[in-house]
Amino acid sequence: MDSKKRALSRRTAATLAAAAVVAAPLAAAAPASAAGSISVLADFEGGAPDGFFSYGAAGFGIVDVAADSPDAKPGQTDPTKVVSYGWDVTAPGSFGGVGQTFAGARDVSAFDGVTLMVDGSGNGASYQVELFDGGPNADASERFDVDLVDDTGGWKEVRLPWSAFTRATDFQPGGAPDDGLGLTTLWGYAIPAVNGADTIRVDDIAVYSDADLTPSVSFSAAAASAIEGDALDVEVRLDLASDAPVTVELGAVDGTATLADGDYADPAATVEFAPGETTRTIQVATTGDDVEESDETFTLGLAAPSGAQLGSVTALEVTILDDDGEVVGPPSGRAAIVDDHESPLVRGDAGGIPVGWFEAQDPSSTVAFERTDAPPAPVPGAPDGNDVLRADFDVTSFGVVVRNFTNEAADAWTTQDWSTYEGIGFWQYGNGSGTDLFLDLLDNRNPGSTTDDAERFVVSYEDDWRGWKFLTFDFADFSRKNIGNNAPNDGLTLTEMHGYAFGSLRTTTPQTFLYDDVLLYGEVEPPALSVGFDRAGYEVTEGDTLAGVIRLNRVAETDVTVAYESLSIEARTATEDLSATADRDFTPVSGTVTIPAGEREATIELPTLQDGKNEVDETFVVRLSDPQGAEFGFVRTATVSIQDDDLADPTLVEDFEATPWLYDTTGKSTLTTREIAADSGDGYEGQDAYENVADFAYKGESTLGRGFAGGEDWSDAEGLSFWVNGSAKATPVTVEIQDDPAPDDGPGTWELAWSDEFDGPAGAPANPENWTYETGGWGWGNDELQYYTDSTDNAGLDGDGNLVITAREVDGEAEGLECWYGPCEYTSARLITEQKQKQEFEYGRIESRVQLPEGSGIWPAVWSLGTDFREVGWPQTGEIDIMEYVGRLPNEIFGTIHGPGYSGGQSYGGIYDFGQPVPEGWHEFAVEWTPEEIVWSVDGIEYHEAVPADVAPNEWVFDHPFSLITNIAVGGNFGGALGDDLEFPQSLTVDYVRVYQAPDTAERFTASTVVRGTGWQQVTIPFDAFERADEQPDGAPDDGLTLTDVQGYSLTFAGKGTASIDRVTVD
């Protein structure tokens, strides 16, 4: 049984009923009144719409729902089709979703938001609705999203106004703009999975307006192509169904293709939409010939609408593809056949991974393949009886034919080295279907992997020709493809190729493609020989020895040597670990390792040390230096995270492993800590190999003690124990327990509990009893650009009662500062009260008076983080942003909470608009935090509040101690791109940070004992020996020693001497 438990706060008991009320999801999900105008994006009546897709650990299928089915939608009277969408993203690093990309961008700015019907399971899994806005295409558009929770079984309408969407923080494609949700260029949408495993049904995805809008008529796409001689299907669409007929005139304008030359037939026509109809398809004929010529273009246009207005895409450029050119075969010069399909297409298994040839597809698709000697036409130049690969695709979301390299027995996944070739090519028989196709390359895997974690690279192309054609793709044309399989991320190395795949994301009709003679072509210089670790981060169980792998990027012809060294680090890394201590947590090693000629890797042993303490995981680094015979590779420095394997001691109150910042002393006394070794002669029975103990030197009656930021429950224990080593023959000790307090009457009764006024000489660092400087340049989870330093150049006192945090532009290469993107370009500071247990708080008013920096890309904040974040991680620990500011929005500040299911871009927050730039003056920002609510204010004006119901059914995690943080970030996902208006240096000036809490009313109980003799001994005082103290704070209860909400304890020594103390427990 645990002797020590987390106690309920003073006000929690009175608010349990309110906190238990189940509220609506984060975004409005209740049925709303019918909108004035609805523009349907997908209703699935004709199956999955063009451009519909799935990705990652998700899939979909179109299902029929009868009107009398239990699964019918409310009010459904006819059979209908809906999409069934399932996902499982429970595995670490996994992701997935479904969505739709439009053939052309759509202007939805006249509408008010998105609506969709959702049939949930109610299992609590989370998902998003995400918009693809702006940019030149869907792949480079800016993402905006909103979180939803599957909290209700059955159908409901989810209605999301544009204001519910915020810029996505989990993913933005490269090249995406950062200019806000414009809505004039919407390229599509997605429904990504956030967590859990679930299957929901979705229907009637649409944009809505509460107003009655005029329909707009447009082309569905802005460009199209057809092989000469083919007819092109051109879709014209209305964004809104009309109750009356709608017409629009279709015409053409010559380009390099002309009517006069007979390149295409005159398409002039009146396009008519019957009432309720929203799409019309018009055929435009092109003319074939036998003349080899360049591709030619002309433009279709819309004009003179009746019953509608012209929309955003009124011109469509048509390209007529010439098909009369001579068939060009493989490039001349160096080439190597990978597969010629003359041998059987073997299937095999390598420890559960398919090898050889196999197919993969989503549940709604079918893919098949075989070897055939009867193609529609022979491959140019091929001998009689030549075999080719036939692949049949009927694809809804994705389908591939995969070639994983294997041995003759087809029981191992083997590799090939393609690093000296320029590209890959193959023959393919095209159908002119316009199908989007792709070629995947499967590059290297993680060392020692037993799963398919091969890194994928992809190139896409279109089936826009007929007959045999030899396609070539330089390796430089491939881009990385993330499929959520925890693959390496070290570029297309080409030295350990595991295979390739032919595939399609969608076929409008079943397609058969034929392939032959997959080959490598060209010659490039082999990559420079480089040496590095095989990964950037390792994990090892405490006490074990890690075998670190040092690897070459290819086999060398001569020996390669490199020096290595393991050492502690002070900078925090991308993990939540603390720094490991040499000779306590790990044994530092150094040396030189040789990778012999003809070999590719060598290992080094990195031993760690076992202890008996439950602690957070700790990290050290191992670095390479002085390479001989090779240059440095991708990973020169690797982190090693020591995974703690010791169970927490539920009886432990304090073991002084950290500097005792949370302890207060009175009288003529000093409190320090030191380390003792078990075998030093100064140890005590049962201690760990090394223990930190407190040394309390006193003269006269002196006390050391600490209060708990949140009460603790000791009611299951029988007494308080501690180990002590006194310097006197008889040492009187009085133990005091601060038991339960009176109820907290709220902010009106709070008083100053702690503050830092930042008084001190100019150039001095922040008070080390309060603040720790965190350091590092790993991006801090947000792709931030700065390196946080512990220099007073970045954070120090100004001599006028202020702390000044300054972001500076630097030459990172000259200063030896390495960031996640290369040499650092900026430095700044981040100060926290958590590390080494300096200050922590639970409930109260937290306020700070500051003057902010300015310029687009600057991101200062005063905020707080749960003190258990190293154990439970973010966002489970909770985050309260007292003030956040981003320079790109100069008039606004943000007050926000983050927790499980409502973090990052889906956080719950409020905005205060000053109507003028915030940096122009000083402002006081504050939160008032109680168990039942958090209220934000600026300059005494309340502008936002949060209560548990606002985040339900997600967990309210603001019921435990938090630490304080203040910093300036540069750039990052929220800070945004750096603007021309940003000039360095920029400073956040902090006048003070103050915390107000309820007055101390804890009822006091004391018990006395005498520590007799010197040497270590364990002292235990039963709780029934404690009596109510004569002196009590004003308002203290008088209800006996309950031990259910202990607020703190203290030890008072009398006389003169020194006492060493360790392992305070309740047993």
TrEMBL record:
GO biological process, one term: cell communication
Any one GO cellular component localisation term in the record: membrane
Annotated Pfam families: Calx-beta (PF03160), CBM_11 (PF03425), Glyco_hydro_16 (PF00722)
Organism superkingdom: Bacteria
One GO MF term attached to the UniProt entry: cellulase activity
Keyword Calcium appears in the UniProt entry: yes
Keyword Hydrolase: yes
Chain ranges of the GH16 domain: 735-1001
Keywords annotated in UniProt: Calcium, Hydrolase, Repeat, Signal
Family annotation (SMART domains): Calx_beta (SM00237)
Residues of the signal peptide: 1-34
Family membership: Belongs to the glycosyl hydrolase 16 family.
PANTHER family found in the cross-reference section: GLYCOSIDE HYDROLASE FAMILY 16 PROTEIN, GLYCOSYL HYDROLASE-RELATED
Protein name: Family 16 glycosylhydrolase
Organism: Agromyces bracchium
Taxonomic classification: Bacteria, Bacillati, Actinomycetota, Actinomycetes, Micrococcales
